Amino acid sequence: MPTNPSATLAVIADHVDRYHEQLGDLVPGYVTTDQADMVNALVEAERALRTAARLVRKAGKLAAATRH
Questions:
Q1: CA–CA separation, 11 vs 16, rounded Å?
Q2: pLDDT value at position 67?
Q3: pLDDT averaged over consecutive 10-residue blocks of the chain (68 residues)?
Q4: Are 53 and 17 in contact (CB under 8 A)?
Q5: pTM of the predicted model, to two decimals?
Q6: Torsion of the alpha carbons at 17, 57, 39 and 44, rounded to the nearest 10
Q7: Are 53 and 20 within 8 A, CB to CB?
Q8: What's the pLDDT at 34?
Q9: Beta strands of the chain (E only): which ranges?
């Protein structure tokens, strides 16, 4: 187990946030095409990453609370 799990989880959440943003940047390029399935898949993945980042941050807060 890492020495400071809350710090590790914060870094992971930041990475997940960046992936979420990168996926969001891809969506407009497909909206104007006839690729609704691709747009739907990107939006679904974007939503899942947003949820994942939120849960990782929650885990970080819980880890910080249990250390005290």
A1: 9
A2: 76
A3: 86 98 95 92 97 98 87
A4: yes
A5: 0.86
A6: 160
A7: yes
A8: 87
A9: none
Angle between helices 5-31 and 36-66 (to 10 degrees): 170
Domain ranges of the chain: 5-66
Distance, CA of 15 to CA of 56 (rounded, Å): 11
At residue 22, what are phi and psi to the nearest 5 degrees? -65, -40
Nearest-angstrom CA–CA distance, 15 and 17: 5
Residue with tokens 């910080």: 64
CA atoms within 13 A on the CB side of 4: 5
Where b means 16+ CB within 10 Å and e means fewer, 43-68 reads eebbeebbebbeebbebbeebeeeee
Q: What is the pLDDT of residue 24?
A: 95
